[in-house]
Amino acid sequence: MAKIKKTLLSIVFSIVILFGWSVFNSNNVNADEKVYEIGTDVTFPPFEFANDQNQYVGIDMDIIRTIAKNEGFKVKIKPVGFNAAVQALDAGQLDGVIAGTTITDERKQKMDFSAPYFKTGVVMAVGQNSSIKNFQDLKGKRVAIKTGTAAGDYAKSIQKKYGFKTVTFDDSNNVYNDVTTGNSVACFEDQPVMQYAIKTGAKLKIVTKPANGGAYGFSVKKGHNQELLKKFDAGLKKIKSNGQYKKIVAKYLGASAVASQKAHKTQNTFISLWKQNQGALLGGLEQTVILTVLSIFFATIFGIFFGMLGVVPNKFANGVSTTVIYIFRGLPLLVLALFIYTGVPNLVGEKIPAFVAGIITLTLNEGAYTAAFVKGGIEAVDGGQMEAARSLGLPYGKAMRRVILPQGLKIMVPSFINQFIITLKDTSILSIIGILELTQTGKIIIARNLEGFKIWTMVALIYLVIITLLTWLSKWVERRMKG
Protein backbone atom coordinates (compact mmCIF):
# COMPACT_ATOMS: atom_id res chain seq x y z
CA MET A 1 0.00 0.00 0.00
CA ALA A 2 2.98 2.29 0.55
CA LYS A 3 3.81 2.11 -3.17
CA ILE A 4 0.20 2.89 -4.04
CA LYS A 5 0.26 5.95 -1.80
CA LYS A 6 3.48 7.14 -3.44
CA THR A 7 1.93 6.69 -6.88
CA LEU A 8 -1.18 8.65 -5.85
CA LEU A 9 0.99 11.45 -4.52
CA SER A 10 2.94 11.56 -7.80
CA ILE A 11 -0.31 11.85 -9.80
CA VAL A 12 -1.67 14.61 -7.57
CA PHE A 13 1.71 16.39 -7.57
CA SER A 14 1.93 16.26 -11.38
CA ILE A 15 -1.58 17.65 -11.85
CA VAL A 16 -0.95 20.38 -9.24
CA ILE A 17 2.27 21.38 -11.05
CA LEU A 18 0.44 21.54 -14.42
CA PHE A 19 -2.44 23.55 -13.00
CA GLY A 20 -0.23 25.79 -10.86
CA TRP A 21 2.04 26.53 -13.82
CA SER A 22 -0.97 27.39 -15.98
CA VAL A 23 -2.40 29.77 -13.38
CA PHE A 24 0.95 31.44 -12.68
CA ASN A 25 1.81 31.75 -16.36
CA SER A 26 -1.62 33.14 -17.24
CA ASN A 27 -1.64 35.70 -14.42
CA ASN A 28 2.00 36.68 -14.93
CA VAL A 29 1.61 37.33 -18.66
CA ASN A 30 -1.61 39.33 -18.36
CA ALA A 31 -0.53 41.37 -15.35
CA ASP A 32 3.04 42.24 -16.29
CA GLU A 33 2.90 42.45 -20.07
CA LYS A 34 -0.75 43.52 -20.45
CA VAL A 35 -1.44 40.87 -23.06
CA TYR A 36 -5.13 40.19 -23.67
CA GLU A 37 -6.17 36.78 -24.97
CA ILE A 38 -8.68 37.33 -27.76
CA GLY A 39 -10.75 34.45 -29.12
CA THR A 40 -11.80 34.23 -32.73
CA ASP A 41 -13.24 31.88 -35.33
CA VAL A 42 -11.13 29.61 -37.52
CA THR A 43 -13.18 29.69 -40.74
CA PHE A 44 -14.81 33.07 -41.32
CA PRO A 45 -13.09 34.82 -44.25
CA PRO A 46 -12.74 37.70 -44.95
CA PHE A 47 -12.98 38.53 -41.23
CA GLU A 48 -10.60 35.87 -39.90
CA PHE A 49 -8.62 33.23 -41.75
CA ALA A 50 -5.03 32.00 -42.23
CA ASN A 51 -2.99 33.41 -45.13
CA ASP A 52 -0.40 31.61 -47.29
CA GLN A 53 2.12 31.84 -44.44
CA ASN A 54 -0.54 30.41 -42.08
CA GLN A 55 -0.67 33.66 -40.14
CA TYR A 56 -4.08 34.73 -38.88
CA VAL A 57 -5.38 37.70 -40.89
CA GLY A 58 -8.67 39.28 -41.94
CA ILE A 59 -10.77 42.36 -41.26
CA ASP A 60 -11.32 41.48 -37.59
CA MET A 61 -7.67 40.59 -37.06
CA ASP A 62 -6.39 43.82 -38.60
CA ILE A 63 -8.90 45.88 -36.63
CA ILE A 64 -7.99 44.42 -33.24
CA ARG A 65 -4.24 44.55 -33.92
CA THR A 66 -4.36 48.12 -35.23
CA ILE A 67 -6.39 49.27 -32.23
CA ALA A 68 -4.06 47.43 -29.84
CA LYS A 69 -1.03 49.11 -31.39
CA ASN A 70 -2.63 52.56 -31.30
CA GLU A 71 -3.98 52.20 -27.75
CA GLY A 72 -0.84 50.67 -26.23
CA PHE A 73 -1.79 47.10 -25.37
CA LYS A 74 -0.98 43.67 -26.78
CA VAL A 75 -3.23 40.85 -27.95
CA LYS A 76 -2.74 37.12 -28.27
CA ILE A 77 -5.09 35.66 -30.86
CA LYS A 78 -6.68 32.30 -29.98
CA PRO A 79 -8.33 30.70 -33.06
CA VAL A 80 -10.65 28.34 -31.19
CA GLY A 81 -13.77 28.51 -33.37
CA PHE A 82 -16.84 30.66 -32.82
CA ASN A 83 -18.80 28.31 -30.57
CA ALA A 84 -15.79 27.47 -28.39
CA ALA A 85 -14.80 31.16 -28.21
CA VAL A 86 -18.20 32.20 -26.86
CA GLN A 87 -18.13 29.41 -24.25
CA ALA A 88 -14.55 30.20 -23.26
CA LEU A 89 -15.40 33.89 -22.87
CA ASP A 90 -18.26 33.03 -20.52
CA ALA A 91 -15.92 30.77 -18.52
CA GLY A 92 -13.34 33.54 -18.18
CA GLN A 93 -10.80 31.70 -20.33
CA LEU A 94 -10.63 34.59 -22.80
CA ASP A 95 -10.47 38.35 -22.26
CA GLY A 96 -12.46 39.17 -25.38
CA VAL A 97 -13.89 37.81 -28.62
CA ILE A 98 -13.78 39.28 -32.11
CA ALA A 99 -15.29 36.82 -34.54
CA GLY A 100 -17.96 38.52 -36.57
CA THR A 101 -20.22 38.41 -33.50
CA THR A 102 -23.60 39.93 -34.26
CA ILE A 103 -24.86 42.15 -31.45
CA THR A 104 -28.19 40.78 -30.17
CA ASP A 105 -30.32 41.34 -27.05
CA GLU A 106 -29.86 37.71 -26.05
CA ARG A 107 -26.08 37.93 -26.24
CA LYS A 108 -26.10 41.21 -24.30
CA GLN A 109 -27.27 39.22 -21.27
CA LYS A 110 -23.92 37.41 -21.20
CA MET A 111 -21.60 39.84 -23.00
CA ASP A 112 -20.74 43.52 -23.06
CA PHE A 113 -20.31 44.79 -26.62
CA SER A 114 -18.28 47.54 -28.19
CA ALA A 115 -19.71 50.05 -30.60
CA PRO A 116 -20.71 48.31 -33.88
CA TYR A 117 -17.87 48.06 -36.38
CA PHE A 118 -19.49 46.35 -39.40
CA LYS A 119 -23.08 46.17 -40.64
CA THR A 120 -24.42 42.82 -41.82
CA GLY A 121 -27.51 40.79 -42.67
CA VAL A 122 -28.43 37.14 -43.17
CA VAL A 123 -28.76 35.64 -46.65
CA MET A 124 -29.61 32.19 -47.97
CA ALA A 125 -27.34 30.54 -50.55
CA VAL A 126 -27.91 27.42 -52.67
CA GLY A 127 -25.93 25.39 -55.19
CA GLN A 128 -25.17 27.04 -58.54
CA ASN A 129 -27.58 24.77 -60.42
CA SER A 130 -30.23 24.64 -57.71
CA SER A 131 -33.89 25.35 -58.47
CA ILE A 132 -34.45 26.71 -54.94
CA LYS A 133 -35.45 30.36 -55.23
CA ASN A 134 -37.03 31.29 -51.89
CA PHE A 135 -37.91 30.07 -48.41
CA GLN A 136 -41.12 28.42 -49.63
CA ASP A 137 -39.06 25.98 -51.71
CA LEU A 138 -37.36 24.65 -48.58
CA LYS A 139 -40.38 22.69 -47.29
CA GLY A 140 -39.38 19.18 -46.23
CA LYS A 141 -35.74 19.76 -47.14
CA ARG A 142 -32.47 20.05 -45.16
CA VAL A 143 -30.60 23.31 -44.57
CA ALA A 144 -27.02 23.72 -43.26
CA ILE A 145 -26.20 26.28 -40.56
CA LYS A 146 -23.24 27.14 -38.35
CA THR A 147 -23.33 26.52 -34.60
CA GLY A 148 -24.11 29.49 -32.40
CA THR A 149 -24.29 32.12 -35.16
CA ALA A 150 -26.90 34.81 -35.76
CA ALA A 151 -27.47 33.33 -39.23
CA GLY A 152 -28.16 29.95 -37.64
CA ASP A 153 -30.53 31.52 -35.12
CA TYR A 154 -32.41 33.26 -37.92
CA ALA A 155 -32.79 29.98 -39.82
CA LYS A 156 -34.20 28.30 -36.72
CA SER A 157 -36.61 31.19 -36.15
CA ILE A 158 -38.28 30.59 -39.55
CA GLN A 159 -37.85 26.82 -39.59
CA LYS A 160 -41.40 25.93 -38.52
CA LYS A 161 -42.98 28.53 -40.77
CA TYR A 162 -41.35 27.13 -43.90
CA GLY A 163 -41.11 23.47 -42.81
CA PHE A 164 -37.43 22.70 -43.33
CA LYS A 165 -34.91 20.78 -41.21
CA THR A 166 -31.51 22.06 -40.09
CA VAL A 167 -28.11 20.45 -39.62
CA THR A 168 -25.35 22.28 -37.75
CA PHE A 169 -21.59 22.48 -38.30
CA ASP A 170 -18.78 24.16 -36.38
CA ASP A 171 -17.14 25.87 -39.36
CA SER A 172 -18.24 27.62 -42.53
CA ASN A 173 -16.36 25.36 -44.93
CA ASN A 174 -18.38 22.32 -43.85
CA VAL A 175 -21.58 24.34 -44.16
CA TYR A 176 -20.76 25.24 -47.78
CA ASN A 177 -19.59 21.72 -48.62
CA ASP A 178 -22.81 20.22 -47.32
CA VAL A 179 -24.68 22.28 -49.90
CA THR A 180 -22.29 21.79 -52.83
CA THR A 181 -22.29 18.01 -52.26
CA GLY A 182 -26.08 17.95 -52.23
CA ASN A 183 -26.58 16.79 -48.65
CA SER A 184 -28.36 20.07 -47.89
CA VAL A 185 -30.25 22.24 -50.37
CA ALA A 186 -29.30 25.60 -48.84
CA CYS A 187 -27.32 27.35 -46.13
CA PHE A 188 -27.71 30.56 -44.14
CA GLU A 189 -24.74 32.89 -43.69
CA ASP A 190 -23.88 36.54 -43.05
CA GLN A 191 -24.04 38.52 -46.30
CA PRO A 192 -20.41 39.80 -46.54
CA VAL A 193 -19.01 36.37 -45.67
CA MET A 194 -21.19 34.60 -48.22
CA GLN A 195 -20.39 37.14 -50.91
CA TYR A 196 -16.65 36.76 -50.28
CA ALA A 197 -16.86 32.95 -50.36
CA ILE A 198 -18.70 32.99 -53.69
CA LYS A 199 -16.34 35.53 -55.26
CA THR A 200 -13.33 33.44 -54.23
CA GLY A 201 -14.56 30.12 -55.54
CA ALA A 202 -17.43 28.66 -53.50
CA LYS A 203 -19.91 27.06 -55.95
CA LEU A 204 -22.97 28.74 -54.48
CA LYS A 205 -25.33 31.57 -55.27
CA ILE A 206 -27.33 33.92 -53.06
CA VAL A 207 -31.10 33.78 -53.65
CA THR A 208 -32.52 36.05 -50.92
CA LYS A 209 -32.15 39.65 -49.85
CA PRO A 210 -30.37 40.38 -46.54
CA ALA A 211 -32.67 39.82 -43.56
CA ASN A 212 -32.44 40.27 -39.82
CA GLY A 213 -30.01 43.16 -40.30
CA GLY A 214 -27.52 43.78 -37.53
CA ALA A 215 -23.92 44.68 -36.82
CA TYR A 216 -20.75 43.03 -35.57
CA GLY A 217 -19.20 44.03 -32.27
CA PHE A 218 -16.18 43.20 -30.14
CA SER A 219 -17.27 41.49 -26.92
CA VAL A 220 -16.07 40.82 -23.37
CA LYS A 221 -17.67 38.85 -20.56
CA LYS A 222 -20.45 40.89 -18.95
CA GLY A 223 -19.06 43.05 -16.18
CA HIS A 224 -15.44 42.09 -16.93
CA ASN A 225 -12.54 43.71 -18.84
CA GLN A 226 -14.28 47.07 -19.07
CA GLU A 227 -10.95 48.83 -19.55
CA LEU A 228 -10.27 46.68 -22.63
CA LEU A 229 -13.73 47.49 -23.98
CA LYS A 230 -13.15 51.23 -23.52
CA LYS A 231 -9.79 50.97 -25.29
CA PHE A 232 -11.41 49.15 -28.20
CA ASP A 233 -14.16 51.77 -28.55
CA ALA A 234 -11.65 54.62 -28.38
CA GLY A 235 -9.40 52.90 -30.91
CA LEU A 236 -12.29 52.11 -33.26
CA LYS A 237 -13.35 55.74 -33.26
CA LYS A 238 -9.81 56.82 -34.14
CA ILE A 239 -9.28 54.38 -37.03
CA LYS A 240 -12.64 55.35 -38.53
CA SER A 241 -11.76 59.03 -38.39
CA ASN A 242 -8.19 58.72 -39.72
CA GLY A 243 -9.04 56.40 -42.63
CA GLN A 244 -7.34 53.24 -41.33
CA TYR A 245 -10.66 51.42 -41.06
CA LYS A 246 -11.50 51.99 -44.74
CA LYS A 247 -8.07 50.75 -45.77
CA ILE A 248 -8.52 47.56 -43.74
CA VAL A 249 -11.91 46.78 -45.31
CA ALA A 250 -10.63 47.55 -48.83
CA LYS A 251 -7.62 45.31 -48.22
CA TYR A 252 -9.91 42.26 -47.98
CA LEU A 253 -13.11 43.25 -49.80
CA GLY A 254 -11.67 45.37 -52.60
CA ALA A 255 -11.93 44.01 -56.15
CA SER A 256 -8.16 43.44 -56.51
CA ALA A 257 -7.93 41.56 -53.21
CA VAL A 258 -10.79 39.21 -54.06
CA ALA A 259 -9.48 38.62 -57.61
CA SER A 260 -6.02 37.80 -56.25
CA GLN A 261 -7.44 35.32 -53.77
CA LYS A 262 -9.56 33.61 -56.45
CA ALA A 263 -6.65 33.42 -58.91
CA HIS A 264 -4.46 31.86 -56.28
CA LYS A 265 -7.04 29.13 -55.58
CA THR A 266 -7.18 28.05 -59.21
CA GLN A 267 -3.47 27.11 -59.01
CA ASN A 268 -3.93 24.76 -56.04
CA THR A 269 -2.73 21.35 -57.22
CA PHE A 270 -2.16 18.62 -54.61
CA ILE A 271 1.62 19.04 -54.82
CA SER A 272 1.52 22.84 -54.65
CA LEU A 273 -0.83 22.68 -51.67
CA TRP A 274 1.54 20.31 -49.87
CA LYS A 275 4.57 22.53 -50.57
CA GLN A 276 2.63 25.57 -49.44
CA ASN A 277 1.29 24.03 -46.22
CA GLN A 278 3.75 21.32 -45.21
CA GLY A 279 5.32 23.54 -42.55
CA ALA A 280 1.96 24.16 -40.89
CA LEU A 281 0.84 20.53 -41.21
CA LEU A 282 4.09 19.18 -39.77
CA GLY A 283 3.85 21.77 -37.00
CA GLY A 284 0.36 20.46 -36.25
CA LEU A 285 1.73 16.93 -36.25
CA GLU A 286 4.46 17.95 -33.79
CA GLN A 287 1.81 19.35 -31.43
CA THR A 288 -0.20 16.14 -31.82
CA VAL A 289 2.79 13.97 -30.94
CA ILE A 290 3.68 16.12 -27.90
CA LEU A 291 0.09 15.94 -26.66
CA THR A 292 0.07 12.18 -27.18
CA VAL A 293 3.38 11.48 -25.42
CA LEU A 294 2.61 13.66 -22.39
CA SER A 295 -0.93 12.32 -22.09
CA ILE A 296 0.22 8.71 -22.31
CA PHE A 297 2.84 9.37 -19.61
CA PHE A 298 0.31 10.78 -17.14
CA ALA A 299 -2.43 8.35 -18.22
CA THR A 300 -0.10 5.40 -17.57
CA ILE A 301 0.61 6.57 -14.01
CA PHE A 302 -3.10 7.26 -13.49
CA GLY A 303 -4.13 3.92 -15.02
CA ILE A 304 -1.61 1.78 -13.12
CA PHE A 305 -2.65 3.34 -9.82
CA PHE A 306 -6.40 2.89 -10.27
CA GLY A 307 -5.95 -0.48 -11.98
CA MET A 308 -3.98 -1.72 -8.96
CA LEU A 309 -6.63 -0.33 -6.62
CA GLY A 310 -9.10 -2.58 -8.40
CA VAL A 311 -7.28 -5.78 -7.45
CA VAL A 312 -6.03 -5.14 -3.90
CA PRO A 313 -7.94 -7.06 -1.18
CA ASN A 314 -9.87 -3.99 -0.04
CA LYS A 315 -13.53 -3.35 -0.94
CA PHE A 316 -13.27 0.43 -0.58
CA ALA A 317 -10.25 0.57 -2.90
CA ASN A 318 -12.03 -1.72 -5.38
CA GLY A 319 -15.05 0.59 -5.30
CA VAL A 320 -12.94 3.70 -5.93
CA SER A 321 -11.27 2.00 -8.89
CA THR A 322 -14.57 0.85 -10.39
CA THR A 323 -16.14 4.31 -9.96
CA VAL A 324 -13.22 6.21 -11.54
CA ILE A 325 -13.08 3.81 -14.50
CA TYR A 326 -16.86 4.01 -14.95
CA ILE A 327 -17.01 7.82 -14.87
CA PHE A 328 -14.07 8.74 -17.08
CA ARG A 329 -14.52 5.89 -19.53
CA GLY A 330 -18.23 6.66 -19.79
CA LEU A 331 -17.93 10.40 -20.46
CA PRO A 332 -17.57 11.37 -24.16
CA LEU A 333 -14.12 12.86 -24.70
CA LEU A 334 -15.57 16.02 -26.28
CA VAL A 335 -17.83 16.65 -23.27
CA LEU A 336 -14.92 16.07 -20.88
CA ALA A 337 -12.70 18.49 -22.82
CA LEU A 338 -15.31 21.26 -22.77
CA PHE A 339 -16.06 20.63 -19.09
CA ILE A 340 -12.40 20.99 -18.10
CA TYR A 341 -11.69 23.94 -20.40
CA THR A 342 -14.88 25.97 -19.85
CA GLY A 343 -16.61 24.41 -16.82
CA VAL A 344 -13.80 24.11 -14.27
CA PRO A 345 -12.61 27.74 -14.67
CA ASN A 346 -16.11 28.85 -13.66
CA LEU A 347 -15.71 26.89 -10.42
CA VAL A 348 -12.13 27.84 -9.52
CA GLY A 349 -12.07 31.34 -10.99
CA GLU A 350 -8.78 30.82 -12.81
CA LYS A 351 -7.86 30.20 -16.44
CA ILE A 352 -6.63 26.83 -17.64
CA PRO A 353 -4.57 27.04 -20.86
CA ALA A 354 -6.05 24.92 -23.65
CA PHE A 355 -2.90 22.78 -23.85
CA VAL A 356 -3.05 21.92 -20.14
CA ALA A 357 -6.80 21.28 -20.36
CA GLY A 358 -6.12 18.94 -23.27
CA ILE A 359 -3.48 16.99 -21.32
CA ILE A 360 -5.80 16.64 -18.32
CA THR A 361 -8.67 15.54 -20.57
CA LEU A 362 -6.65 12.81 -22.27
CA THR A 363 -5.06 11.75 -18.99
CA LEU A 364 -8.43 11.14 -17.36
CA ASN A 365 -10.05 9.48 -20.38
CA GLU A 366 -7.14 7.35 -21.58
CA GLY A 367 -6.08 6.68 -17.98
CA ALA A 368 -9.48 5.14 -17.27
CA TYR A 369 -9.07 2.74 -20.19
CA THR A 370 -5.52 1.98 -19.08
CA ALA A 371 -6.78 1.23 -15.56
CA ALA A 372 -9.36 -1.16 -17.01
CA PHE A 373 -6.83 -3.28 -18.91
CA VAL A 374 -4.28 -3.15 -16.04
CA LYS A 375 -6.98 -4.51 -13.76
CA GLY A 376 -8.03 -7.04 -16.38
CA GLY A 377 -4.43 -8.12 -17.06
CA ILE A 378 -3.78 -8.86 -13.39
CA GLU A 379 -7.11 -10.66 -12.96
CA ALA A 380 -6.32 -12.79 -16.03
CA VAL A 381 -3.40 -14.41 -14.16
CA ASP A 382 -4.50 -17.68 -12.55
CA GLY A 383 -5.59 -17.04 -8.98
CA GLY A 384 -3.63 -20.07 -7.86
CA GLN A 385 -0.41 -18.15 -8.57
CA MET A 386 -1.09 -15.73 -5.73
CA GLU A 387 -2.14 -18.52 -3.39
CA ALA A 388 1.04 -20.45 -4.14
CA ALA A 389 3.21 -17.37 -3.58
CA ARG A 390 1.50 -16.56 -0.28
CA SER A 391 1.81 -20.18 0.88
CA LEU A 392 5.59 -19.88 0.38
CA GLY A 393 5.59 -16.97 2.83
CA LEU A 394 5.74 -14.05 0.41
CA PRO A 395 3.82 -10.96 1.59
CA TYR A 396 1.06 -9.65 -0.70
CA GLY A 397 3.11 -6.78 -2.13
CA LYS A 398 6.14 -8.92 -2.96
CA ALA A 399 3.96 -11.71 -4.40
CA MET A 400 2.23 -9.17 -6.63
CA ARG A 401 5.54 -7.63 -7.73
CA ARG A 402 7.53 -10.84 -8.24
CA VAL A 403 4.91 -13.33 -9.40
CA ILE A 404 1.68 -11.76 -10.67
CA LEU A 405 2.82 -8.56 -12.40
CA PRO A 406 5.50 -10.18 -14.63
CA GLN A 407 2.81 -12.53 -16.00
CA GLY A 408 0.16 -9.81 -16.24
CA LEU A 409 2.58 -7.50 -18.03
CA LYS A 410 2.75 -9.83 -21.03
CA ILE A 411 -1.02 -9.51 -21.33
CA MET A 412 -1.02 -5.73 -20.85
CA VAL A 413 1.82 -4.53 -23.13
CA PRO A 414 -0.01 -4.86 -26.47
CA SER A 415 -2.92 -2.95 -24.93
CA PHE A 416 -0.54 -0.19 -23.83
CA ILE A 417 0.69 0.23 -27.42
CA ASN A 418 -2.86 0.17 -28.78
CA GLN A 419 -3.85 2.83 -26.24
CA PHE A 420 -1.00 4.99 -27.56
CA ILE A 421 -2.56 4.75 -31.04
CA ILE A 422 -6.03 5.56 -29.68
CA THR A 423 -4.67 8.58 -27.79
CA LEU A 424 -2.96 9.85 -30.94
CA LYS A 425 -6.28 9.76 -32.78
CA ASP A 426 -8.19 11.23 -29.84
CA THR A 427 -6.04 14.39 -29.91
CA SER A 428 -8.09 15.49 -32.93
CA ILE A 429 -11.09 16.04 -30.65
CA LEU A 430 -9.11 18.68 -28.76
CA SER A 431 -9.49 20.99 -31.75
CA ILE A 432 -12.85 21.85 -30.13
CA ILE A 433 -10.98 23.84 -27.45
CA GLY A 434 -8.65 25.49 -29.96
CA ILE A 435 -5.48 23.44 -29.60
CA LEU A 436 -3.52 23.83 -32.82
CA GLU A 437 -2.93 20.12 -33.44
CA LEU A 438 -3.08 18.42 -36.83
CA THR A 439 -6.86 18.47 -37.29
CA GLN A 440 -7.23 22.10 -36.21
CA THR A 441 -4.38 23.04 -38.55
CA GLY A 442 -6.26 21.36 -41.41
CA LYS A 443 -9.40 23.36 -40.60
CA ILE A 444 -7.49 26.63 -40.64
CA ILE A 445 -5.84 25.88 -43.99
CA ILE A 446 -9.17 24.89 -45.55
CA ALA A 447 -10.74 28.12 -44.35
CA ARG A 448 -8.35 29.97 -46.63
CA ASN A 449 -8.41 27.85 -49.79
CA LEU A 450 -11.65 25.79 -49.49
CA GLU A 451 -9.67 22.75 -50.70
CA GLY A 452 -11.30 20.40 -48.21
CA PHE A 453 -10.79 17.14 -50.10
CA LYS A 454 -7.08 17.69 -50.79
CA ILE A 455 -6.17 19.01 -47.34
CA TRP A 456 -8.11 16.30 -45.48
CA THR A 457 -6.41 13.70 -47.70
CA MET A 458 -3.04 15.06 -46.56
CA VAL A 459 -4.12 15.03 -42.92
CA ALA A 460 -5.47 11.47 -43.27
CA LEU A 461 -2.24 10.25 -44.88
CA ILE A 462 -0.13 11.78 -42.09
CA TYR A 463 -2.27 10.06 -39.45
CA LEU A 464 -2.14 6.81 -41.43
CA VAL A 465 1.68 6.84 -41.65
CA ILE A 466 2.14 7.48 -37.92
CA ILE A 467 -0.50 4.91 -36.91
CA THR A 468 1.02 2.31 -39.26
CA LEU A 469 4.43 2.79 -37.62
CA LEU A 470 2.89 2.43 -34.16
CA THR A 471 1.00 -0.70 -35.28
CA TRP A 472 4.25 -2.27 -36.48
CA LEU A 473 5.82 -1.36 -33.12
CA SER A 474 2.90 -2.99 -31.31
CA LYS A 475 3.31 -6.24 -33.26
CA TRP A 476 7.09 -6.24 -32.75
CA VAL A 477 6.71 -5.77 -28.97
CA GLU A 478 4.05 -8.46 -28.85
CA ARG A 479 6.36 -10.94 -30.63
CA ARG A 480 9.23 -10.05 -28.30
CA MET A 481 7.03 -10.58 -25.23
CA LYS A 482 5.90 -14.00 -26.50
CA GLY A 483 9.46 -14.97 -27.32
Can you describe what's shown?
This protein starts with a helix and ends with a helix. It has three domains: 34-116 and 217-266, D-Maltodextrin-Binding Protein, domain 2; 119-215, Periplasmic binding protein-like II (D-Maltodextrin-Binding Protein, domain 2), CATH 3.40.190; 271-482, MetI-like (MetI-like fold), CATH 1.10.3720.10. The longest helix has 40 residues, at 270-309. It is elongated and about 90 Å long. The strands form four sheets. Strands 7, 8, 9, 10, 11 and 12 form a six-stranded mixed β-sheet that branches. A three-stranded parallel β-sheet has the order 4-1-5. Strands 2-3 form a two-stranded antiparallel sheet. The protein has helices at residues 2-32, 59-71, 82-90, 105-108, 150-157, 159-162, 172-180, 191-199, 226-241, 244-253, 255-266, 270-309, 315-330, 333-348, 354-379, 383-391, 396-426, 438-449, 452-482; strands at 35-40, 49-50, 56-57, 74-79, 96-97, 111-113, 118-127, 142-146, 165-169, 186-190, 204-206, 211-216, 219-221. With 483 residues, the chain is of the alpha/beta class. InterPro entries: AA_ABC_transptr_permease_3TM, ArtM/GltK/GlnP/TcyL/YhdX-like, Iontro_rcpt_C, MetI-like, MetI-like_sf, Solute-binding_3/MltF_N. Keywords: Cell membrane, Membrane, Transmembrane, Transmembrane helix, Transport. It is found in: Cell membrane. The chain crosses the membrane at residues 289-312, 324-344, 455-473. Belongs to the binding-protein-dependent transport system permease family.
